Prior knowledge:
The chain is mainly α. Helices cover 29% and strands 4% of the residues.
Amino acid sequence: MGKGKGSFDHWATRVAVSRILFELKGEFHEQIARDAFRLAANKLPGLYEFVKKGDPPVMGITKLDGLSIEDVTRPRKKLPLDEAASRIPSSS
């Protein structure tokens, strides 16, 4: 009478966003690597992106090509409260 739970079916782990999962080095054509990763991504859950060394950095889905983090995080337009507050004269 064994107390084992049996063999494993699968392994699972959490992977953070913008984490590099696979890295290749050597002399081979880029299209072969893209096809290999496409086939591997079909067997793995989630969404994956093929990146090359020298590509611009990414913040979320925005590529920071010539942009700073401050440019990306600043509001694109003024909020309605800020506009209303600027029209009200200060009573001091």
